[in-house]
Protein backbone atom coordinates (compact mmCIF):
# COMPACT_ATOMS: atom_id res chain seq x y z
CA UNK A 1 0.00 0.00 0.00
CA UNK A 2 1.44 3.36 -1.05
CA UNK A 3 1.75 6.06 1.56
CA UNK A 4 0.29 9.49 0.86
CA UNK A 5 3.76 10.92 0.19
CA UNK A 6 4.55 8.10 -2.23
CA UNK A 7 1.29 8.72 -4.10
CA UNK A 8 2.12 12.43 -4.43
CA UNK A 9 5.58 11.61 -5.75
CA UNK A 10 4.24 9.04 -8.20
CA UNK A 11 1.63 11.45 -9.57
CA UNK A 12 4.21 14.20 -9.93
CA UNK A 13 6.48 11.85 -11.81
CA UNK A 14 3.63 10.75 -14.08
CA UNK A 15 2.89 14.39 -14.85
CA UNK A 16 6.52 14.99 -15.73
CA UNK A 17 6.57 11.99 -18.02
CA UNK A 18 3.41 13.17 -19.78
CA UNK A 19 4.92 16.62 -20.29
CA UNK A 20 8.11 15.09 -21.60
CA UNK A 21 6.19 12.89 -24.00
CA UNK A 22 4.34 15.92 -25.32
CA UNK A 23 7.60 17.79 -25.86
CA UNK A 24 9.20 14.85 -27.63
CA UNK A 25 6.16 14.46 -29.88
CA UNK A 26 6.25 18.13 -30.85
CA UNK A 27 9.98 17.96 -31.54
CA UNK A 28 9.42 14.96 -33.80
CA UNK A 29 6.68 16.78 -35.68
CA UNK A 30 8.91 19.80 -36.16
CA UNK A 31 11.79 17.68 -37.36
CA UNK A 32 9.44 16.28 -40.02
CA UNK A 33 8.62 19.80 -41.20
CA UNK A 34 5.16 19.97 -39.60
CA UNK A 35 5.72 23.03 -37.43
CA UNK A 36 8.31 25.30 -35.96
CA UNK A 37 9.24 28.91 -36.08
CA UNK A 38 11.52 30.15 -38.85
CA UNK A 39 13.34 32.58 -36.59
CA UNK A 40 13.99 29.90 -33.97
CA UNK A 41 15.30 27.53 -36.63
CA UNK A 42 17.56 30.21 -38.08
CA UNK A 43 18.95 31.03 -34.66
CA UNK A 44 19.57 27.37 -33.92
CA UNK A 45 21.35 26.90 -37.24
CA UNK A 46 23.42 29.99 -36.62
CA UNK A 47 24.56 28.51 -33.33
CA UNK A 48 25.53 25.25 -34.98
CA UNK A 49 22.59 23.19 -33.82
CA UNK A 50 18.85 22.99 -34.31
CA UNK A 51 16.72 24.08 -31.35
CA UNK A 52 13.09 23.38 -32.18
CA UNK A 53 10.29 25.03 -30.32
CA UNK A 54 9.16 22.90 -27.42
CA UNK A 55 6.47 22.99 -24.80
CA UNK A 56 8.59 22.91 -21.62
CA UNK A 57 7.38 21.71 -18.24
CA UNK A 58 4.38 23.97 -18.69
CA UNK A 59 3.46 26.73 -21.06
CA UNK A 60 5.94 29.63 -21.12
CA UNK A 61 8.77 28.49 -18.88
CA UNK A 62 12.44 29.43 -18.97
CA UNK A 63 13.23 25.95 -20.31
CA UNK A 64 10.98 26.02 -23.35
CA UNK A 65 13.72 25.92 -25.97
CA UNK A 66 16.09 23.47 -24.25
CA UNK A 67 16.10 20.23 -26.25
CA UNK A 68 14.61 17.29 -24.35
CA UNK A 69 16.29 14.15 -25.67
CA UNK A 70 16.47 11.78 -22.71
CA UNK A 71 13.90 10.17 -20.41
CA UNK A 72 15.38 11.87 -17.32
CA UNK A 73 15.83 15.38 -18.70
CA UNK A 74 12.77 16.84 -17.01
CA UNK A 75 14.13 15.79 -13.63
CA UNK A 76 16.99 18.24 -14.15
CA UNK A 77 14.69 21.22 -13.95
CA UNK A 78 13.50 20.44 -10.42
CA UNK A 79 17.06 20.81 -9.15
CA UNK A 80 17.72 17.41 -7.55
CA UNK A 81 17.00 14.68 -10.09
CA UNK A 82 16.85 11.28 -8.35
CA UNK A 83 17.60 9.65 -11.69
CA UNK A 84 21.01 11.37 -11.93
CA UNK A 85 22.77 11.18 -8.54
CA UNK A 86 25.92 12.94 -9.80
CA UNK A 87 24.00 16.03 -10.91
CA UNK A 88 24.56 17.90 -7.62
CA UNK A 89 28.30 17.30 -7.88
CA UNK A 90 28.22 18.44 -11.48
CA UNK A 91 26.45 21.64 -10.53
CA UNK A 92 28.95 22.37 -7.77
CA UNK A 93 31.91 21.74 -10.08
CA UNK A 94 30.49 24.07 -12.74
CA UNK A 95 29.78 26.76 -10.18
CA UNK A 96 33.28 26.52 -8.67
CA UNK A 97 35.10 26.19 -11.96
CA UNK A 98 36.54 22.75 -11.15
CA UNK A 99 37.27 21.81 -14.74
CA UNK A 100 38.69 18.35 -14.08
CA UNK A 101 35.61 17.39 -12.09
CA UNK A 102 33.33 18.75 -14.82
CA UNK A 103 35.17 16.74 -17.45
CA UNK A 104 35.09 13.59 -15.34
CA UNK A 105 31.33 13.74 -14.80
CA UNK A 106 30.51 14.64 -18.41
CA UNK A 107 32.62 11.81 -19.83
CA UNK A 108 31.49 9.19 -17.30
CA UNK A 109 28.39 8.44 -19.38
CA UNK A 110 26.49 9.98 -22.32
CA UNK A 111 25.08 13.37 -21.34
CA UNK A 112 22.11 15.11 -22.92
CA UNK A 113 22.07 18.76 -24.09
CA UNK A 114 19.71 19.57 -21.20
CA UNK A 115 22.21 18.15 -18.67
CA UNK A 116 25.09 20.12 -20.18
CA UNK A 117 23.02 23.31 -20.37
CA UNK A 118 22.23 23.24 -16.67
CA UNK A 119 25.95 23.23 -15.98
CA UNK A 120 26.66 25.89 -18.59
CA UNK A 121 24.39 28.52 -17.04
CA UNK A 122 26.03 27.94 -13.64
CA UNK A 123 29.49 28.30 -15.14
CA UNK A 124 28.46 31.50 -16.93
CA UNK A 125 26.88 33.02 -13.85
CA UNK A 126 29.97 32.27 -11.76
CA UNK A 127 32.37 33.58 -14.40
CA UNK A 128 34.12 30.27 -15.05
CA UNK A 129 35.32 30.65 -18.64
CA UNK A 130 37.16 27.33 -18.78
CA UNK A 131 34.20 25.26 -17.62
CA UNK A 132 31.85 27.17 -19.93
CA UNK A 133 34.15 26.59 -22.91
CA UNK A 134 34.37 22.87 -22.20
CA UNK A 135 30.59 22.51 -21.90
CA UNK A 136 29.95 24.40 -25.12
CA UNK A 137 32.43 22.21 -26.93
CA UNK A 138 30.76 19.16 -25.40
CA UNK A 139 27.43 20.16 -26.92
CA UNK A 140 25.70 22.45 -24.43
CA UNK A 141 23.12 24.49 -26.38
CA UNK A 142 22.86 28.27 -26.32
CA UNK A 143 19.17 28.99 -25.82
CA UNK A 144 17.25 32.24 -25.62
CA UNK A 145 17.77 32.42 -21.85
CA UNK A 146 21.36 31.20 -21.66
CA UNK A 147 23.35 34.36 -22.28
CA UNK A 148 21.66 36.56 -19.68
CA UNK A 149 23.40 34.50 -16.96
CA UNK A 150 26.65 36.24 -17.92
CA UNK A 151 25.27 39.40 -16.30
CA UNK A 152 25.66 37.69 -12.90
CA UNK A 153 29.36 36.95 -13.46
CA UNK A 154 32.20 38.96 -11.89
CA UNK A 155 32.87 42.14 -13.84
CA UNK A 156 36.28 41.08 -15.10
CA UNK A 157 34.84 37.88 -16.58
CA UNK A 158 31.84 39.25 -18.45
CA UNK A 159 33.60 40.29 -21.65
CA UNK A 160 35.66 37.05 -21.86
CA UNK A 161 32.40 35.10 -21.49
CA UNK A 162 30.65 37.13 -24.18
CA UNK A 163 33.69 36.61 -26.41
CA UNK A 164 33.42 32.88 -25.83
CA UNK A 165 29.74 32.84 -26.71
CA UNK A 166 30.39 34.69 -29.97
CA UNK A 167 32.76 31.87 -30.92
CA UNK A 168 29.78 29.51 -30.68
CA UNK A 169 27.33 31.49 -32.80
CA UNK A 170 25.79 34.01 -30.42
CA UNK A 171 25.72 37.66 -31.47
CA UNK A 172 24.91 40.88 -29.65
CA UNK A 173 21.62 40.98 -31.59
CA UNK A 174 20.55 37.39 -30.89
CA UNK A 175 17.07 37.62 -29.32
CA UNK A 176 15.72 36.11 -26.17
CA UNK A 177 12.04 35.36 -25.64
CA UNK A 178 9.71 37.90 -27.27
CA UNK A 179 12.67 39.38 -29.14
CA UNK A 180 14.41 40.86 -26.10
CA UNK A 181 18.08 41.71 -26.68
CA UNK A 182 20.72 42.37 -24.04
CA UNK A 183 21.82 45.89 -25.01
CA UNK A 184 19.23 47.76 -22.88
CA UNK A 185 20.35 45.76 -19.83
CA UNK A 186 24.04 46.73 -19.97
CA UNK A 187 23.83 50.47 -20.63
CA UNK A 188 25.19 51.52 -17.23
CA UNK A 189 28.35 49.44 -17.74
CA UNK A 190 30.65 51.53 -19.93
CA UNK A 191 33.01 48.67 -20.81
CA UNK A 192 30.17 46.37 -21.82
CA UNK A 193 28.42 49.10 -23.78
CA UNK A 194 31.59 49.78 -25.74
CA UNK A 195 32.09 46.06 -26.39
CA UNK A 196 28.49 45.50 -27.51
CA UNK A 197 28.54 48.44 -29.90
CA UNK A 198 31.94 47.42 -31.25
CA UNK A 199 30.48 43.97 -31.94
CA UNK A 200 27.54 45.28 -33.94
CA UNK A 201 24.77 45.74 -31.37
CA UNK A 202 21.85 47.50 -33.05
CA UNK A 203 20.49 50.24 -30.73
CA UNK A 204 17.13 50.17 -32.51
CA UNK A 205 16.31 46.56 -31.61
CA UNK A 206 14.07 45.88 -28.64
CA UNK A 207 11.56 43.55 -27.09
CA UNK A 208 8.24 43.23 -28.91
CA UNK A 209 5.79 45.85 -27.68
CA UNK A 210 2.84 43.49 -27.88
CA UNK A 211 4.55 40.21 -26.90
CA UNK A 212 3.11 38.75 -30.07
CA UNK A 213 5.54 35.85 -30.53
CA UNK A 214 7.58 34.23 -27.77
CA UNK A 215 10.02 32.87 -30.35
CA UNK A 216 9.91 35.87 -32.66
CA UNK A 217 12.31 38.58 -33.72
CA UNK A 218 12.88 41.91 -31.94
CA UNK A 219 11.11 45.06 -32.96
CA UNK A 220 13.46 46.82 -35.37
CA UNK A 221 12.08 50.29 -34.56
CA UNK A 222 12.52 50.21 -30.80
CA UNK A 223 13.71 53.10 -28.66
CA UNK A 224 14.13 51.00 -25.52
CA UNK A 225 17.92 51.25 -25.41
CA UNK A 226 17.95 55.04 -25.85
CA UNK A 227 15.05 55.58 -23.45
CA UNK A 228 16.75 53.41 -20.84
CA UNK A 229 20.01 55.31 -21.22
CA UNK A 230 18.13 58.61 -20.99
CA UNK A 231 16.49 57.63 -17.70
CA UNK A 232 19.23 55.55 -16.04
CA UNK A 233 22.47 55.96 -17.97
CA UNK A 234 25.06 58.67 -18.45
CA UNK A 235 25.28 61.40 -21.07
CA UNK A 236 28.20 59.45 -22.54
CA UNK A 237 25.99 56.36 -22.95
CA UNK A 238 23.35 58.45 -24.72
CA UNK A 239 25.99 59.92 -27.01
CA UNK A 240 27.36 56.48 -27.87
CA UNK A 241 23.92 55.18 -28.78
CA UNK A 242 23.13 58.20 -30.91
CA UNK A 243 26.50 57.87 -32.65
CA UNK A 244 25.68 54.19 -33.28
CA UNK A 245 22.49 55.16 -35.09
CA UNK A 246 19.82 55.15 -32.37
CA UNK A 247 16.67 56.80 -33.73
CA UNK A 248 14.88 59.19 -31.38
CA UNK A 249 11.78 59.10 -33.54
CA UNK A 250 11.23 55.51 -32.42
CA UNK A 251 10.20 56.67 -28.97
CA UNK A 252 10.36 59.50 -26.43
CA UNK A 253 13.74 59.55 -24.69
CA UNK A 254 13.36 63.17 -23.55
CA UNK A 255 10.13 62.23 -21.78
CA UNK A 256 11.91 59.44 -19.87
CA UNK A 257 14.88 61.63 -18.97
CA UNK A 258 12.53 64.32 -17.64
CA UNK A 259 10.76 61.93 -15.28
CA UNK A 260 13.71 59.78 -14.20
CA UNK A 261 14.44 59.02 -10.52
CA UNK A 262 11.37 60.76 -9.08
CA UNK A 263 11.85 62.69 -5.82
CA UNK A 264 15.49 61.54 -5.59
CA UNK A 265 16.96 64.90 -4.62
CA UNK A 266 18.77 67.80 -6.23
CA UNK A 267 21.76 65.84 -7.52
CA UNK A 268 19.56 63.41 -9.46
CA UNK A 269 17.35 66.26 -10.62
CA UNK A 270 20.24 68.27 -12.08
CA UNK A 271 22.06 65.16 -13.31
CA UNK A 272 19.54 64.47 -16.08
CA UNK A 273 19.77 67.97 -17.59
CA UNK A 274 22.96 67.32 -19.64
CA UNK A 275 21.25 64.24 -21.09
CA UNK A 276 18.14 66.26 -21.93
CA UNK A 277 20.35 68.88 -23.58
CA UNK A 278 22.11 66.20 -25.62
CA UNK A 279 18.78 64.85 -26.82
CA UNK A 280 17.58 68.34 -27.73
CA UNK A 281 20.77 68.95 -29.72
CA UNK A 282 19.94 65.83 -31.73
CA UNK A 283 16.45 67.02 -32.53
CA UNK A 284 14.24 65.98 -29.61
CA UNK A 285 10.95 67.90 -29.43
CA UNK A 286 10.51 69.54 -26.03
CA UNK A 287 6.72 69.19 -26.36
CA UNK A 288 6.60 65.70 -27.89
CA UNK A 289 3.63 63.66 -26.72
CA UNK A 290 4.50 60.18 -25.48
CA UNK A 291 2.13 57.69 -27.10
CA UNK A 292 1.13 54.70 -24.97
CA UNK A 293 -1.92 52.57 -24.33
CA UNK A 294 -1.36 53.17 -20.61
CA UNK A 295 -2.18 56.29 -18.63
CA UNK A 296 0.91 58.48 -18.23
CA UNK A 297 1.91 62.16 -17.98
CA UNK A 298 2.42 62.21 -21.79
CA UNK A 299 4.60 65.33 -21.96
CA UNK A 300 8.19 65.80 -20.70
CA UNK A 301 7.35 68.79 -18.53
CA UNK A 302 4.39 67.05 -16.90
CA UNK A 303 6.59 64.03 -16.23
CA UNK A 304 9.21 66.27 -14.64
CA UNK A 305 6.62 67.97 -12.44
CA UNK A 306 5.25 64.64 -11.27
CA UNK A 307 8.82 63.54 -10.48
CA UNK A 308 9.31 66.61 -8.32
CA UNK A 309 12.27 67.64 -10.49
CA UNK A 310 12.25 71.41 -10.04
CA UNK A 311 15.51 72.08 -11.91
CA UNK A 312 14.42 70.00 -14.88
CA UNK A 313 11.14 71.89 -15.04
CA UNK A 314 13.02 75.22 -15.06
CA UNK A 315 15.28 73.95 -17.84
CA UNK A 316 12.40 72.62 -19.92
CA UNK A 317 10.60 75.96 -19.60
CA UNK A 318 13.76 77.70 -20.80
CA UNK A 319 13.69 75.45 -23.87
CA UNK A 320 10.13 76.33 -24.76
CA UNK A 321 8.13 73.62 -22.98
CA UNK A 322 4.43 74.45 -22.82
CA UNK A 323 3.19 74.07 -19.21
CA UNK A 324 -0.44 74.06 -20.31
CA UNK A 325 -0.31 70.91 -22.47
CA UNK A 326 -2.62 68.41 -20.81
CA UNK A 327 -1.77 64.76 -20.41
CA UNK A 328 -3.68 62.03 -18.65
CA UNK A 329 -3.06 63.70 -15.27
CA UNK A 330 -3.58 67.28 -16.37
CA UNK A 331 -1.10 69.95 -17.40
CA UNK A 332 2.20 70.74 -15.70
CA UNK A 333 0.65 73.85 -14.19
CA UNK A 334 -2.47 72.20 -12.80
CA UNK A 335 -0.55 69.22 -11.40
CA UNK A 336 2.02 71.50 -9.77
CA UNK A 337 -0.69 73.56 -8.09
CA UNK A 338 -2.48 70.47 -6.86
CA UNK A 339 0.42 68.27 -5.74
CA UNK A 340 3.71 70.12 -6.23
CA UNK A 341 6.10 71.58 -3.68
CA UNK A 342 5.99 75.26 -2.82
CA UNK A 343 8.89 75.90 -5.18
CA UNK A 344 7.19 74.01 -7.97
CA UNK A 345 4.05 76.08 -7.46
CA UNK A 346 6.07 79.29 -7.70
CA UNK A 347 7.65 78.14 -10.97
CA UNK A 348 4.26 77.21 -12.43
CA UNK A 349 1.68 79.70 -11.14
CA UNK A 350 -1.96 79.13 -12.05
CA UNK A 351 -3.11 80.73 -15.28
CA UNK A 352 -6.32 82.49 -16.13
CA UNK A 353 -9.47 80.59 -15.31
CA UNK A 354 -7.72 78.30 -12.84
CA UNK A 355 -10.53 77.66 -10.40
CA UNK A 356 -11.41 74.80 -8.11
CA UNK A 357 -13.65 73.00 -10.62
CA UNK A 358 -11.19 73.59 -13.45
CA UNK A 359 -8.43 72.07 -11.33
CA UNK A 360 -10.48 68.98 -10.57
CA UNK A 361 -11.23 68.48 -14.25
CA UNK A 362 -7.58 69.02 -15.22
CA UNK A 363 -6.11 66.45 -12.88
CA UNK A 364 -8.79 63.83 -13.47
CA UNK A 365 -7.95 61.06 -15.99
CA UNK A 366 -9.13 61.82 -19.49
CA UNK A 367 -12.63 60.58 -20.14
CA UNK A 368 -13.67 61.03 -16.49
CA UNK A 369 -14.45 64.76 -16.53
CA UNK A 370 -18.15 64.40 -17.23
UniProtKB/TrEMBL annotation:
The highest taxon in the source lineage is Eukaryota
Record-linked SMART domains: ANK
Keywords for this protein = ANK repeat, Repeat
Coiled-coil regions, chain positions: none
Do the record's keywords include Repeat? yes
Q: Which PANTHER family does the annotation name?
A: ANKYRIN REPEAT AND SOCS BOX PROTEIN 2 (PTHR24189:SF50), MYOTROPHIN (PTHR24189)
Report the protein name in the record: Uncharacterized protein
